[in-house]
Amino acid sequence: MRLMARLPLAFAHRLGNGLGWLVARWPNRQRRNALINLALNFPERDREQLLALRDDTLREVAKTYCEIAHLWLRPVEQTLSLVREVRGAELLERRDGQGLIVLSPHIGAWELAGLYLAEQGPTAIFYKPQKYLDDLIRRARGRSGATLAPITGKGIRVLVQALERGDYVGVLPDQEPKADKGAVFAPLFGIPAFTMLLVNRLARRTGAPVIFMFAERLDDQSGFRIHCIRAPEGIDSADDEVAARALNQGIEQCVRTCPNQYIWPYKRLRRRPEGWPKIYSGGLSDAEALEQVERLRARHAALAEAAPPN
């Protein structure tokens, strides 16, 4: 990783482009899962469009891995200098001593988004401790001043205290929750997705506003563009389903900005409502993946038709 960190960013991106091209060439689960997700979430696109977007996505995901050493191990000033533009920067302003909840979906360079957020002021970032490289991850993410709060009850208390002090709190909002408590199913691109309620609980308890922020990778390989987007209304609703739906609407809005830079290989829809079919199964070829999607669409339509009205 130290060797990779010495490479120019453009070289790391070219390397990722080549590795992603290789992954897209032969049948494998990452390639299949990305195509299934894309076909389910973008039914208006034809086969050729879906395959092109899938292949582009795999190249962008590979760039994420190839640039990680560059973002983690270089001096923080050099890393932050890669931010070429910030859109919606006014949304990062904290008012009247109030904290701000900042949600960063897995789009582009989310590691850079966290570093940039902590540079704006005192920040606590919710993170999942890792079995390997955890010390490196904590040092890397904390080098612009962030406090890392583990995904535990103690970590949640750290987030609440940070918001009560008027600090920033950073959360990755698009991971599938592991526990039944504190999550509900809500539409994500029209498909039921098991969705966290942590953001809603933090917003309701502290009164802190919520925004989305992500770092888009620029096509010219020169750096990144930060996007800040206001969260949809209802994300702080007392109704769990309304809040989860608003959270996923915000994620959708971010993803549609640069859909090729989202982590489509991730099995975001692994957990299904009772009685709904598994999504990530079947053969690994493109034809078999698209046949699986057609079966899923037919089954989803039948389940939706049979569901009682709200």
Outline the structure in words.
It contains 11 helices and 9 strands. By secondary structure, the protein is an alpha/beta fold. The chain has a single domain (2-273, 287-306), classed as Glycerol-3-phosphate (1)-acyltransferase. The protein has a 7-stranded mixed beta sheet with strand order 1-9-8-2-5-3-4, with helices on both faces. A hairpin with a 6-residue loop joins strand 8 and strand 9. The longest helix is centred in the N-terminal third of the chain and has 27 residues, at 47-73.
Task: Give the SSE layout.
Elements: H1 2-6, H2 9-23, H3 29-41, H4 47-73, H5 76-80, E1 83-87, E2 100-103, H6 110-120, E3 123-127, H7 134-142, E4 147-150, H8 153-165, E5 168-171, E6 183-188, E7 191-196, H9 198-206, E8 210-217, E9 224-230, H10 240-257, H11 286-306
Parallel strand pairs: 1-9, 2-5, 2-8, 3-4, 3-5
Antiparallel strand pairs: 6-7, 8-9
Helix pairs in contact: 2-4, 3-4, 3-11
GO molecular function: acyltransferase activity
Subcellular location: Cell inner membrane
InterPro entries: LipA_acyltrans
How would you summarize this macromolecular structure in one to three sentences?
The protein is α/β, with parallel strands linked by helices and 310 residues long.
pLDDT below 50 for ≥5 consecutive residues: which ranges?
none
Fold-level CATH name: Glycerol-3-phosphate (1)-acyltransferase
Going by CATH, the architecture would be 3-Layer(aba) Sandwich
Which class of secondary structure composition applies to the elements?
Answer: alpha/beta
> What's the count of strands?
9
Assigned CATH class? Alpha Beta
